[in-house]
Automatic annotation (TrEMBL):
Pfam families, sorted: Aldo_ket_red
Descriptive protein name: Aldo/keto reductase family
Domain NADP-dependent oxidoreductase per the UniProt entry, residue ranges: 2-59
Natural source organism: Streptococcus merionis
Domain of life, source organism: Bacteria
Length: 75
């Protein structure tokens, strides 16, 4: 995730938010300060490529993280 963070000059949290948006889900963010909202909003400007998405999915699988939503079956 750091590689993509550096590529897009954003934080890992913004990459995670951009990933969720690219998957056409609505990320639920726990923010309590205006600065956190503004920071999270920057993720909208990140357009992850299909290759970026594959890297993130591969990293998740390699670490045992299941990224499928319940609507995708067998989650």
């Amino acid at each position: 995730m750091r590689t993509l963070s550096n590529k897009y000059d954003v934080s890992p949290a913004q990459i995670a938010t951009a990933w969720a948006i690219k998957r056409e889900t609505t990320p639920i963010l726990g923010v309590t300060k205006v600065e956190q909202v503004l920071d999270a909003a920057k993720a909208i400007r990140v357009t992850l490529t299909d290759a970026d998405m594959e890297k993130l999915e591969s990293a998740a699988l390699a670490t045992g993280v299941d990224t499928r939503g319940g609507w995708e079956g067998n989650a």
